[in-house]
Amino acid sequence: MTSSGAAGASGAPAAPAPRKSVTGTRTTVAVLFLLPALVLLGALVVYPIGYSLIRSLYDQSGDGFAGVDNYRALFTDDGIRTALKNNVVWVVFAPTVATALGLVFAVLTERIRWGTAFKLVVFMPMAISMLAAGIIFRLVYDQDPDKGVANAVVVGVHDTFAESSAFPKAHPGRDSPLEAAGGGAFVTREPVRAGEPVALPLVGVAPERMPDDARDAAAPRPEPDKVTGTTWQDFTRGKGVGRLGEVDAGEPGYAGMRIEAVKDGRVVATAKASADGTFTLPAAADGALLRLPADNFKEPYNGLDWLGPTLVTPAIIGSYVWMWAGFAMVLIAAGLAAVPRELMEAARVDGANEWQVFRRVTVPMLAPVLAVVVVTLMINVLKVFDLVFIIAPGSSQDDANVLALELYRKGFAADQPGVASAIAVLLLLLVIPVMWFNVRRLRREVRR
Amino acid sequence: MTAQAETVTGAAEQAASGSPGPARRSPASRLAERAGGGAVRVFLVLVGLFWLVPTIGLLLSSLRSPQDMAADGWWTVLTKPSQLTFASYAELLRNGDITGSLVNTVLITVPATLLVVVIGSLAGYAFAWMEFPGRDWWFLAVVGLLVVPVQVALIPIAELFGKVGLFGSVLGVVLFHVGFGLPFAVFLLRNFFAEIPRELLEAARLDGAGELRLFARVVLPLGGPAIASLGIFQFLWVWNDLLVALIFADSGSQPITVALQTQVRQFGNNIDVLAPGAFISMVIPLAVFFAFQRQFVSGVMAGAVK
């Protein structure tokens, strides 16, 4: 009791002195110090809990006792059921993904000089509002690949692997040597011959949709033992200016058009038109039909409908992970700093590779920290409101619904305070295990 | 730089293990390790860029005209920097709703932060160093309130504020934030104050300091780091809040988050307000964050349960 230092500080096994007042305070003074906090907590936090519990048992007007009707609505109301389902998805995926990323970042940055700078970048989104993050991600997820960076990347990657189709809406004009071959492809009416140039004219591509590298078409030149030809836009603005089926000055070649030579249903040769629309096929194509396959004419790929009904929840979870992975990273990095180096080094000396060290030493040592991070994020995720409210556009907000949003809608837009109170009680019930855990953990400390 | 970093860690390892370094590694495995280290660096740079791109997108979007925004993506700025303009910002600052809401954000955030710090310190000190019946039980009850979701209080407090005439006022929003900031404040400060060496308090007591003097002259100065963490945490929390203000503020007392939220419905058309508005609303939190990283991080760590 005399001078054993502050009680909370020492973890010494010797029975610590109770943290007695040094002033011999009268209870009235203590009450004065505590009063503001206890009054505010009572009025603003405790009273609402009791009020919500009771309010949830009354009908929407608040006059008639409704029993468990409001709680029944939790399982019958479509909006709430979607919200519950989405909350499960949120609680399962958002904390685990954020924690996993945080773990990877914390471990990888540990030995890197500029690790702090990296951590700062990843941690920064925690400082901004969910509203700002929501606006940021509305921009990211914009459907138009010319505006939203997510779809710009998706389309870019897609077009790198699956060649883009540059000529949607292109089709044969009058008296064309081409005819529709089904499935959107076009094929020549007559077999082609080596040494006899082929014309494959089409019409219907808007000038601004032409590939950037398309140049004026060149008339096909015959080559012995090869099938040569030109595919181009057989259209000149102005009535009667261009000649049908002939390459006129100023008519652009279909740069990049793919051409297949087909014999008896088998593709025997392929070619790709150059910038002026000309192409050359080997002698094998002699006597084949030339086909312009359908993938030349598909509508261009426009990316994913991020904020549509199916992807909206994963997309918003993505923005949440962007905000909170830094939180996980910082807590885990602090835990990592406390793990004794010797353990990892011993494992390495014993021949463990980095992955084994990570899997068998680092992760088990960090388990308590990981648990705290996951639980904290789970509580946080249960209450997620702003991101969904801002990012989900009106058309898919029903599909992105979560409990906190549904509570707001029911309580303040739909004027159903009874049902909203039942949602509030449900949210409270979901965090009670954590509340209990906190109190238990602290009771041990306080008692020392 | 790689070599240097390697030396540094190598030295640390030696110091830590007390052995003359890992002798078993073959040159080949060292080479593989170095290549792996390079891959890690590249990976981290890419992730860092990935994390920055959304924010850069907002910044560059806010610096383009609505016409340019409608035409193509913000990344075209990289090749055509001439599009950059402060016109949207200038326009925004002439918009009375937005400037008024920025003032409201300050009017809400500053008192809500100060009140939580003051009231929380008083209670934290009482829980740490005063004796009264049931002290630990009261404290545990406050800790229990740490995880109560704000959603639980929205409807009851809306009704309560309606009755006492606080609904729609700045004061109402402030009080709500104070109420829900207090459990964390009391929790954090009580634990910190409890670590103050008893001798310091006793010495002050022997000098004849009363309870208030002791609190103001000894406890508060010594509690500086915890108070700073709490203040920054609460400041950011309140500044960034949307939900509470959405319900308890009216059009005259709404903060910037609510003012911007009303524009989101017509997202594409209002981008010239939303992008610069969002960026302005981020400037203060980011400045606070960069200026007080350490305090912020320790606040986050202590608040891991909130």
Major β-sheet profile of chain A: 5 strands, antiparallel
Rg of chain B over CA atoms, rounded to whole Å, is 26 Å
C-alpha-based Rg of chain A, rounded? 35 Å
Number of strands of chain A: 8
Question: How many H/I helices of chain A?
Answer: 13
What is the CATH C-level name of the largest domain in chain A? Mainly Alpha
Overall number of domains of chain A: 3
**CATH architecture heading of the largest domain in chain A:** Orthogonal Bundle
Element string of chain B (H = helix, E = strand)? HHHHHHHHHHHHHHH
- Please give the alpha-carbon distance between the first and last residues of chain B: 41 Å
- Walk across the major sheet of chain A and give the strand order: 1-2-8-5-6
CATH topology assignment of the largest domain in chain A: MetI-like fold
- The coarse overall form of chain B would be globular
Supply the number of structural domains of chain B.
2
Q: What's the oligomerization state?
A: heterodimer
CATH class of the largest domain in chain B: Mainly Alpha
CATH topology of the largest domain in chain B: MetI-like fold
**CATH homologous superfamily designation of the largest domain in chain B:** MetI-like
- Strand percentage of chain B lies at under 5%
What can be said about this structure in brief?
The complex is a heterodimer of chains A (448) and B (306). Chain A is α+β, with helices and mostly antiparallel strands. Chain A is 49% helix and 9% strand.
Give an overview of the whole structure.
Helices cover 49% and strands 9% of the residues of chain A. Chain A has three domains: 45-76 and 416-448, no CATH class; 79-162 and 304-400, MetI-like fold (Orthogonal Bundle); 178-296, no CATH class. Chain A is elongated, with a radius of gyration of 35 Å. Chain A has 448 residues and is an alpha+beta fold. Chain A starts with 26 loop residues before the first helix and ends with a helix. In chain A, α1 (27-55) runs antiparallel to α13 and α4 (115-123) packs antiparallel against α7. Chain B folds into two domains: 29-85; 94-302, MetI-like fold. Chain B contains 15 helices and no strands. Chain B has helices at residues 2-17, 27-62, 66-71, 87-93, 96-129, 135-144, 151-164, 170-193, 198-206, 211-222, 224-239, 243-248, 256-261, 271-291, 293-302. The relative contact order of chain B is 0.11. The model of chain B is unreliable at 1-23 (pLDDT under 50). Chains A and B meet through α1, α3, α4, α5 and α7 of A and α1, α2, α5, α6 and α7 of B.
